[in-house]
What does this fold into?
Amino acid sequence: MFEGKASVTANMCMGPSAFLLRMRAPAVAREAEPGQFVLLRVSTTYDPLLRRPFSICRTVGDEVEILYKVVGRGTSLLSEARPGDELEVMGPLGRGFMPPQGTPLLVAGGMGVAPLAFWAGKLRDMGHEPEVLLGAATSGELFGRKLLEDAGARVEVATEDGSEGFAGTVTELLGRVLEPSHHVYACGPRGMLRKVVALTEEMEVPCQISVEEVMACGVGACMGCAVRAREGGYLLVCRDGPVFDGKKLVL
It folds into this structure.
């Protein structure tokens, strides 16, 4: 695990309030696996004090990319980062995706595209032809599609307002295409993940989910990212995840 400064090389607007940040961090890029994340200080100062967790979206040579959306003060500050700025980064952290036991089918909702773009590229390198179901409220929010296509994935979109692709939610689309031969990988809002797990359990299809949670330390010390386990007790997103077997969590 690397902890130190990374130099910003690009911070590109990808759509409404969405950005792709690229940093030169050779140690992180060398060790990163799809599904892992980094903790990033979002400004060049110590205000805000705590680092923010971001899924690793892609590695390109000695650079690491993260996809994020401006939703508060922290990400607003991050959107102001310019090439040459140095940000403190720690990672890669957490447990990533495990190899498929069937035909990989990826399900992304909103910013959930970030870890799945990285995984799609790795699956392609492993000889698979990944298919991705990408959901958004409207066509203007499908900003992650190019990242998935660049990774070699075949992308089918669903928009809730029917402005592009399947008219409905991405889980409704999943219900139409899911087959017993699939191995599902999903990342997105908690409600979406709950429906994905229910669909895959009904068909007895393997399912791995990447869970997003607020955290402070990233290494299991603060216990701030605890999620309920079905077998009782709690699991930590930073240490035991962020990728879990869908059957292990209470969503």
About this structure: The longest strand covers residues 2-15. The radius of gyration is 17 Å.
